[in-house]
TrEMBL record:
It comes from the Eukaryota. This is Nudix hydrolase domain-containing protein. Coiled coil: none annotated. It comes from Ceratopteris richardii (Triangle waterfern). Gene3D superfamilies: 2.20.70.10, Nucleoside Triphosphate Pyrophosphohydrolase. Residues 121-244 form the Nudix hydrolase domain. Pfam families: NUDIX, Zn_ribbon_Nudix.
Length: 281
C-alpha cells in the first residue's frame, strides 16, 4: 500500500502532500480505507491513480458525516466519476465550496453567496442504427475525438426534444439522411464518463444521403464488412456487434448494458472497456 489517504468532509481543510505522482494499490481488487471520525471512507480500484498531489478539500459548514457505502461486487461501488469542477455559481456568480449537503452522500458544489446546490448529471447521447436491407449506415468523423473513424449517426440530446426526435435530427445532421424510427434498440451506460447512449433501429426513406458538416464520408456497409478496427467509440462497437448478432439470429431485441471504460484508454481503444450486465428481450 503506497500511502494513507484521508478526505476530510467537515471542519478544517485536510491538505495532502506527497512526492509520489499518485497512490496505487496494484495487488488489491478493492481497497477501503477505514473511516475515522470526521473523515469519509474512500474506495480505490485495482491499480487506480486516485489523484495527483496536492489535494485540498475546503472546509464546509453545511455538511454531515456519512457512512461508508455498502460493499458491492460491481465496479460502480469502486470507481467514482469526477466531473468538471464548478468553481463559480451560474446563478449569482459567487464562489462555490464543495461539500456534502445534509441528507446526501456526494460532494456537491454549493454557492457561498446564494446557497444554491449545483448538481452535475450524466449526458444523454441519441442516435440510430440505420439499415437498408443487409447493410448499415456509418459516418466517418470529420471532428475530434476519433477524427477519420467510423461511427453511427448520433449526438447529444437537445432540450425540448424526445430521444427519438433527437436521433432523427442527428442522423440528418451527420448523414443528410431522412429516416423512420422502427423500434428502440439499445441503452448503453458509460458511468465513468457520465454518458448514456440511446440508440434506435431506423430505416432510410430513400437512398439519398451525403456527409453532413461533422462527417467526411457516409456509406452503407454490409453487416459482414463493418470495419470494426476503424470504429470511433466503444459504445458504437458494442451496438454494432449486438445488431449483427440480432440480424443473423433473425430477431431484433432491445438491449441494455454497462460499459466500464478503462482509465486512460482512448475512445476507440478496442481493449479499453468491458461490457457487463447485458440484458436483452
Amino acid at each position: 500500500m503506497a500511502g494513507l489517504v484521508l478526505a476530510r468532509v467537515c471542519g478544517v481543510p485536510f491538505v495532502l502532500m506527497h512526492p509520489a505522482p499518485c497512490f496505487r494499490m496494484p495487488n488489491m481488487s478493492m481497497s477501503r480505507l477505514s473511516a475515522l471520525s470526521g473523515f469519509q471512507t474512500l474506495f480505490i480500484g485495482p491499480g487506480q491513480c486516485m489523484f495527483p498531489p496536492p489535494v485540498v478539500l475546503p472546509p464546509c459548514t453545511s455538511v454531515q458525516s456519512v457512512s461508508p457505502p455498502a460493499e458491492s461486487t460491481t465496479s460502480t461501488s469502486i470507481y467514482r466519476v469526477i466531473g468538471p469542477k464548478v468553481s463559480f455559481c451560474s446563478k449569482c456568480g459567487g464562489p462555490t465550496e464543495h461539500c456534502i449537503p445534509d441528507g446526501e452522500e456526494r460532494l456537491r458544489a454549493i454557492c457561498k453567496s446564494c446557497g444554491i446546490v449545483h448538481y452535475q448529471n450524466p449526458k444523454m447521447v441519441v442516435g440510430c442504427v440505420v439499415a437498408h436491407e443487409d447493410k448499415v449506415l456509418l459516418c466517418r468523423r470529420s471532428i475530434e475525438p476519433s477524427y477519420g473513424l467510423w461511427t453511427l449517426p448520433a449526438g447529444y440530446l437537445e432540450l425540448g426534444e424526445s430521444a427519438a426526435e433527437g436521433a432523427v435530427r442527428e442522423t440528418w445532421e451527420e448523414a443528410i439522411a431522412a429516416v423512420d424510427i422502427e423500434a428502440p434498440f439499445a441503452l448503453l451506460d458509460i458511468p465513468r464518463i457520465g454518458l448514456s447512449y440511446i440508440l434506435f433501429r431506423a430505416k432510410l426513406r430513400t437512398l439519398d444521403f451525403s456527409p453532413g458538416i461533422e462527417s467526411l464520408d457516409c456509406a452503407l456497409f454490409h453487416i459482414d464488412d463493418i470495419p470494426f478496427d476503424q470504429v470511433a467509440f466503444s459504445s458504437v462497437t458494442v451496438a454494432l456487434q449486438l445488431y449483427v448478432e440480432d440480424y443473423k439470429a433473425g430477431r431484433f431485441k432491445v438491449h441494455h448494458g454497462v460499459l466500464d471504460k478503462r482509465m486512460g484508454s482512448s475512445p476507440s481503444d478496442p481493449s479499453g472497456y468491458t461490457f457487463r450486465d447485458h440484458i436483452s428481450n
